[in-house]
Write a structure and sequence with these properties.
With 192 residues, this protein is an alpha+beta fold. The protein has one domain (5-188). It has six helices and six strands. The protein has helices at residues 8-24, 28-31, 35-52, 54-62, 124-129, 149-154, and strands at 65-90, 95-121, 136-137, 144-146, 164-174, 183-188. Strands 1, 2, 3, 4, 5 and 6 form a six-stranded mixed β-sheet that branches. Helix 6 (149-154) links the parallel strand 4 (144-146) and strand 5 (164-174). The longest helix is centred in the N-terminal third of the chain and has 18 residues, at 35-52.
């Protein structure tokens, strides 16, 4: 039997993707992340975001809650995946709820990167979305606004009272593009 050399790159791509996807499985059972670790990392990440982005601080003052994912890993080659744990910081500063985000993607992509993101939940509907049965598919929300420098310049106190605003932070690694399309958020119960 002759080896098919044309299939070799595809096999290598699939093997690399599978290895990368296993590294993106950052659930509490995979990493042993405790509730206190997730809470502490989430608070630190939110404070860093506030320090570097005044618009985020302004949104935080008015938000019903802020869902913070401090450590997301995304990687792949043709097939990709992302995942990480986070906490919901309520408007009184308390943390009682923990979540996991994850997603799969396909297409022209290669590399690995780490980053964090925060979702500012501005109204009761946005707040309710995070506990939908089966999880919240973030990219499907019509009221989700990814805040970059252009959007941040147009935010005002009259435009930030509804929907969900997403901020990305601490991007490291080599992989093109950040987005929330195709990602899902589900509630978890990590150990204390």
């Amino acid at each position: 039997m002759k080896p098919n050399l044309a299939a070799l790159p595809l096999a290598a791509a699939l093997a690399f993707s599978c290895l990368t996807l296993t590294q993106c499985a950052t659930g509490p059972t995979a990493t042993g992340a405790s509730a206190s670790t997730i809470a502490s990392d989430s608070r630190a990440a939110l404070n860093d975001l506030y320090r570097t982005n005044p618009k985020a601080r302004e949104l935080g003052r008015r938000a019903k809650g802020i869902l913070v994912f401090p450590h997301i890993t995304k990687g792949g080659f043709m097939l990709g995946g992302m995942g990480g744990n986070g906490a919901l910081v309520r408007n009184d500063g308390s943390i009682r709820d923990y979540y996991q985000t994850g997603g799969l993607s396909y297409g022209l992509q290669a590399g690995v990167q780490k980053y964090g993101y925060a979702l500012f939940l501005m109204d009761n509907e946005a707040f309710a979305n995070i506990n939908r049965a089966g999880g919240w598919e973030v990219g499907s929300s019509p009221s989700l606004v990814v805040v970059d420098e252009g959007v941040a310049g147009s935010l005002s106190t009259t435009t930030i009272d509804k929907g969900t605003y997403a901020f990305f932070f601490n991007q490291r690694g080599l992989m093109g593009g950040l987005g929330l399309q195709g990602s899902k958020i589900t509630r978890i119960e990590p150990g204390r």
